[in-house]
Automatic annotation (TrEMBL):
Species of origin: Roseicella aerolata
Catalysed reactions listed for this entry: ATP + protein L-histidine = ADP + protein N-phospho-L-histidine
Enzyme class, first EC level, given as a word: transferase
Chain segments annotated as transmembrane: none
InterPro entries xrefs: HATPase_C_sf (IPR036890), His-kinase-like_sensor (IPR054327), PAS (IPR000014), PAS-like_dom_sf (IPR035965), Sig_transdc_His_kinase_HWE (IPR011102)
Protein name, as recorded: histidine kinase
Superkingdom, taxonomy of origin: Bacteria
Length: 662
C-alpha cells in the first residue's frame, strides 16, 4: 500500500466522525426552531380560544346587567326589596353556569334584592366596585378585582353598573358575580397537553382567574411583570418569552385584550415543556449520528483491511458467486413479500399465538409504537406494551379468540407515544398461510378519521350555539315589544324577527364570514330603492363597498330595521314625495370609524322631538353604543330625522374595497 493511499484512508476515518457530527448539529438546530415555532402556534391558538370565550362571557354579563337595570328602573325601595324582585334575579341567573349571583344594592351598600339568600345586615359599601360607582358617575360597566362573596362564600369577581335616582344622584349598584373557577375549568379543558399557565387579568395587574391556581386567590402581577408592562402600554396582543413574576417560570406566553373591556387573557407554555420533544428528538438524532459514524468507521476499516487482502477476497468472491446465484431466486420471492410487508402505508407484524411473541415487524409499526429495530431484535419490543392500559384486556381477549379460529375481528385501540400523546389505530388480522398458529397483523393509523369526527362534533356545537343566540334575540324582541293592539304587536314582532332572519340568511350564504353593507341595507329598503321620482317614497344609497363582520351583522340589521320602521310609519317613507338618503363613509379618528348618515326629507313636518323613547329607540341606542361600541346622534329637524351612527371599523368591518357602490 502506497503512502498516498494510507493518507487517504486516514482522511476517510476522520470524515467518518466529522460528517455525522455536523449533520447532527444542523438537524438539532433546525428541529429546535421547528419545535418552538409549533409551540408558539399552539400557544397563540389557545389564546384566541380563551379570548373568544372571555368576550362572550363578559358581553353576556353586560347584557344581563342591562336587563336587570331596565327591570328595576323606576322602582322605589319597597318594590326593590319585594320578594318578586329577588325571584326575577334568580330566574335571570339560573341559565348561566358562569354567574355566581346577581345583586341590587342601595346607596348605603345594603342589598335590596339578590339571586340567593343573604344577611340584610351585611353591607358591600367597602367593595371596590361600589366605591368606584359612588365616586365616579361616568364609570360605566366596571370589572372588579377578585373577592370572596359574603353571602355565597365563593371566590368571585364582579361586573357592575351604577344606579342613579331621578335627579342623577347615586342610588346604589347592580352587580353580577362571576366565577373564577368556571374560567379555570375552561382553561384546563382548552389547554394543550403540556405544562402551562393560563389566566384572566385586569389591566392594573389584578388576577381574575388562573389555571393552575395560585396559593393566594387574590394575587396580583408583580411590578416587574412583562405582561403588566404591555397592558400598561396598551398593547392589544403579543407574545412574551420572559420569566413570570408569579413563579419565575420561563414561558412562551401569548396575551390578548378582550374587546373594549379592561381585561386581558393570557396563555403560556413552559419553555422546558415545549423543548421536551426536541430533547427526545436529539436522542434519536444522536443514535442515528452515532450509528452513522460507527458505520463509516467500520466501512473505512474494512476498506483498509480489504486493500491488504485483495487477493484473498477475490478468491472468496469466486466461491460465493455460485452460492449467490442459488440464493437470488429465493431472495426474489422474499423480496415480493417484503415489498408488501415493509410498506410505509400500514403497520404489519407476524404474531405467534402460542408463544404470544412477535416474529416479524415492519418499520411503520415500530414508528407507531415508538419502538426501534434494535429494541425489536434484542427482544425488548412488544406492541402490547405501547397499548393504553384500558385497552390491554381487549388485547388478551382477541388473542384468545384468534387461538380458537385462527384470526380475530377488527377492533380499535390507542397506542401511547413516547411524547405522551395517543395514536388511535384499527387492528385487523389474517392467518399466515402454511404456518398454523401465526397471524399477520394489520395496524392502520385512524387519527385523521378521529380528527374528522372531532371537527364534526365541534361544528355541531357551533351550530347549536348560534341557534341559541338567534333564539335569545327573538325572545328579547317578543318580551320587550310594546303595542296598543294585538295586530300591532304581531306586526312589530314580525318585522323585528324578519330583520333578524334576513341577516341570518345573508350570513349563511357566506358561511358566516361577512356580509356587504349595501346588500344588508337593500334587504331592508328594497321596496323603495330604484323607485321613480313621482311614483312614491324612495330611498338612495351612497358609499364605498365594505364587508360587515359576522359578529356585527345581526346588531346592525336590527338598528337599520328600527330606523326603517320609524321612517315608514312616521317619517319620509310614509309619504309619496318622501326621500330617504343613506350614505356611509370612513372618517378619520383613532382606529378609523365608519359613519352611517340616515337623512329623511319630504315626510311629515317635525314639530318637536319625541319626549319619550320606545323599545325601538332603546334597541337602536343599545345596539349602536353597547353591542357595536359606536356613537349615536339623533337630530329631529323640521324637514325630518337626521341620524348619524359612528361605528369602530376595527370592530364591525371584515374588509374594505376601493370600488364605490351607488
Amino acid at each position: 500500500m502506497t503512502l498516498s493511499a494510507l493518507r487517504l484512508h486516514r482522511i476517510v476515518l476522520l470524515a467518518s466522525l466529522l460528517v455525522p457530527a455536523l449533520v447532527f448539529g444542523a438537524a438539532a438546530w433546525w428541529n429546535r426552531g421547528e419545535v418552538l415555532r409549533e409551540g408558539a402556534d399552539t400557544v397563540q391558538r389557545t389564546t384566541a380560544i380563551m379570548h373568544e370565550h372571555a368576550a362572550k362571557i363578559l358581553d353576556t354579563a353586560d347584557l344581563v346587567l342591562g336587563r336587570v337595570a331596565e327591570h328595576v328602573d323606576g322602582m322605589d325601595v319597597a318594590r326593590l326589596a319585594a320578594p318578586e324582585t329577588s325571584t326575577f334575579l334568580r330566574r335571570v341567573r339560573q341559565p348561566y353556569e358562569q354567574f355566581v349571583s346577581i345583586w341590587v344594592a342601595d346607596a348605603g351598600g345594603y342589598v335590596l334584592a339578590g339571586s340567593q339568600a343573604w344577611d340584610p345586615a351585611i353591607s358591600i359599601a367597602d367593595r371596590e366596585f361600589f366605591r368606584v360607582h359612588r365616586e365616579r358617575p361616568d364609570a360605566g360597566a366596571f370589572v372588579s378585582a377578585a373577592f370572596t362573596g359574603r353571602a355565597t362564600t365563593i371566590a368571585s369577581f364582579a361586573i357592575s353598573r351604577r344606579r342613579s335616582d331621578a335627579a342623577g344622584g347615586f342610588a346604589g349598584t347592580i352587580h353580577v358575580a362571576l366565577s373564577p373557577d368556571y374560567f379555570a375549568r375552561f382553561y384546563a379543558e382548552a389547554a394543550p397537553p403540556f405544562a402551562h399557565a393560563a389566566g384572566l387579568f385586569r389591566t392594573d395587574g389584578a388576577i381574575l382567574a388562573r389555571h393552575p391556581a395560585l396559593a393566594d386567590a387574590h394575587s396580583r402581577l408583580g411590578p416587574g411583570s412583562p405582561l403588566l408592562r404591555h397592558m400598561a402600554e396598551g398593547t392589544e396582543r403579543g407574545v412574551i418569552n420572559e420569566p413570570s413574576s408569579l413563579d419565575g417560570q420561563t414561558r412562551l406566553y401569548a396575551f390578548r385584550k378582550v374587546g373594549a373591556w379592561p381585561v386581558y387573557v393570557g396563555f403560556g407554555g413552559d419553555r422546558a415543556a415545549l423543548l421536551a420533544r426536541w430533547h427526545g428528538n436529539l436522542r434519536a438524532y444522536g443514535i442515528v449520528a452515532l450509528a452513522a459514524a460507527l458505520t463509516l468507521l467500520l466501512v473505512a476499516g474494512l476498506a483498509l483491511r480489504q486493500a491488504r487482502v485483495a487477493a484473498a477476497a477475490e478468491a472468496a468472491l469466486r466461491r460465493e458467486a455460485t452460492a449467490r446465484a442459488a440464493a437470488e431466486a429465493r431472495q426474489a420471492a422474499e423480496a415480493r413479500f417484503r415489498g408488501v410487508f415493509e410498506s410505509r402505508g400500514i403497520g404489519m407484524a407476524v404474531f405467534d399465538l402460542a408463544r404470544c411473541e412477535t416474529i416479524l415487524v415492519n418499520d411503520c409499526l415500530l414508528e407507531m409504537t415508538g419502538g426501534s429495530r434494535a429494541a425489536f431484535e434484542e427482544g425488548r419490543w412488544d406492541c402490547r406494551r405501547a397499548t393504553a392500559p384500558e385497552h390491554q384486556p381487549r388485547d388478551e381477549r382477541v388473542i384468545a379468540e384468534a387461538r380458537g379460529r385462527g384470526w380475530f375481528d377488527p377492533y380499535e385501540k390507542d397506542y401511547l407515544c413516547p411524547d405522551g400523546s395517543r395514536l388511535p389505530v384499527r387492528i385487523s388480522s389474517a392467518p399466515l398461510p402454511g404456518e398454523p398458529g401465526r397471524v399477520v397483523l394489520l395496524v392502520q393509523d385512524i387519527s385523521e378519521q378521529r380528527e374528522a369526527e372531532l371537527r364534526r362534533d365541534l361544528l355541531m356545537r357551533e351550530v347549536d350555539h348560534r341557534a341559541k343566540n338567534a333564539l335569545a334575540t327573538a325572545r328579547a324582541a317578543l318580551r320587550l315589544t310594546r303595542a296598543p293592539t294585538l295586530d300591532a304587536f304581531v306586526r312589530e314582532v314580525d318585522g323585528r324577527i324578519g330583520a333578524l332572519a334576513q341577516a341570518l340568511a345573508l350570513l349563511s350564504t357566506t358561511q358566516w364570514h361577512s356580509v356587504g353593507l349595501a346588500e344588508l341595507v337593500r334587504g331592508e329598503l328594497a321596496p323603495f330603492l330604484g323607485a321613480p321620482r313621482s311614483g312614491g317614497p324612495r330611498a338612495e344609497l351612497e358609499g364605498p363597498a365594505v364587508s360587515i363582520a359576522a359578529t356585527a351583522v345581526q346588531p346592525l340589521a336590527m338598528a337599520l330595521h328600527e330606523l326603517a320602521t320609524n321612517a315608514t310609519k312616521y317619517g319620509a317613507l310614509s309619504r309619496p314625495e318622501g326621500l330617504l338618503t343613506l350614505r356611509w363613509e370612513f372618517v378619520d379618528g383613532p382606529g378609523e370609524w365608519l359613519r352611517l348618515t340616515w337623512l329623511e326629507r319630504g315626510g311629515p313636518p317635525v314639530e318637536e322631538p319625541p319626549t319619550d323613547s320606545g323599545f325601538g329607540a332603546r334597541v337602536l341606542q343599545a345596539t349602536v353604543e353597547r353591542q357595536l361600541g359606536g356613537r349615536l346622534a339623533l337630530r329631529w329637524d323640521r324637514a325630518g330625522l337626521a341620524c348619524e351612527m359612528d361605528l369602530p371599523a376595527a370592530r364591525v368591518l371584515a374588509g374594505r374595497l376601493d370600488s364605490r357602490a351607488a
